[in-house]
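Hi R.,

As promised on Friday, here is the backbone we talked about, encoded as structure tokens. Could you run it through your design pipeline when you get a chance and send me back a sequence?
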């Protein structure tokens, strides 16, 4: 049985491209992909900073300069396919990380969030099509994973966040909801080609700085069925399931990793 499980989740010989790989959840994603045997290419606006955050991860990973907001992102994906002859896993994980309200949000905030969460994802899907088809022809199980959010499924409760303007912003959740619908659309279009497209919807995984506020963490914890926030490592198994042959008949779905937050 052990050999069967290892084979299902193995990514040996596979190539993965990840945006936002140096972030709070991006780092454990890169770590998991490397541990499963993948060669991982991390796109970063600031490559040196990303390398420093990933420095202690064992495995085959590299960081390349790319900004998902411009042509360098699809160009990096195309270059990866050319260099390695395949792309098995594409992880779209770049996001906007600041607070705001309907009153304070600007049209520029909305435009940026939708370009990151929808425009850049659409561009990456199209840029990866050739590499994903190459992986399939080589006997792989190509997979696209779009990292959405529980706030693409439900609204944030302002009272959880305290100070005015510190709440999760409207442009973030709206863009993540659109990303989820784009995921379904892409799954329908690419399914006949043998390419799977799914979304991950993380719940409360507050970054280290936010965890200094014990009262805030307690408020978040009380919203989950498990009574606690998530640890970054807890995103890894969900990511590996969607990235690997273990999910070969799973597409067009949203996998929530939120301690039961959205199931109430």
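Update: got your reply. Pasting your designed sequence below so it's all in one thread:
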């Amino acid at each position: 049985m052990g050999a069967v499980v290892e084979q299902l989740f193995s990514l040996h010989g596979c190539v993965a491209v990840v945006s936002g790989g140096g972030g709070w959840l991006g780092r454990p994603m890169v770590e998991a992909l490397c541990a499963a045997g993948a060669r991982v290419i991390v796109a970063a606006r600031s490559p040196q900073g990303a390398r420093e955050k990933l420095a202690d991860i064992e495995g085959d990973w590299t960081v390349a300069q790319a900004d998902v907001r411009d042509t360098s992102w699809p160009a990096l994906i195309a270059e990866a396919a050319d260099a390695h002859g395949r792309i098995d896993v594409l992880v779209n994980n770049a996001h906007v990380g600041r607070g705001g309200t309907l009153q304070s949000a600007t049209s520029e905030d909305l435009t940026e969030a939708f370009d990151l969460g929808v425009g850049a994802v659409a561009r990456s899907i199209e840029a990866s099509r050739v590499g994903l088809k190459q992986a399939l022809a080589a006997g792989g199980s190509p997979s696209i994973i779009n990292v959405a959010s529980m706030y693409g499924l439900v609204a944030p409760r302002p009272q959880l966040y305290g100070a005015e303007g510190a709440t999760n912003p409207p442009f973030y959740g709206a863009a993540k909801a659109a990303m989820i619908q784009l995921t379904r659309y892409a799954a329908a279009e690419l399914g006949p080609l043998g390419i799977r497209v799914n979304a991950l919807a993380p719940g409360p995984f507050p970054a280290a700085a936010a965890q200094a506020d014990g009262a805030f963490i307690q408020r978040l914890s009380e919203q989950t069925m498990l009574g606690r926030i998530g640890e970054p490592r807890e995103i890894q198994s969900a990511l590996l399931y969607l990235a690997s042959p273990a999910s070969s008949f799973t597409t067009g779905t949203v996998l929530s990793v939120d301690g039961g937050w959205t199931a109430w």
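One thing I noticed while checking it: The first helix runs from residue 2 to 9.

Thanks again,
M.
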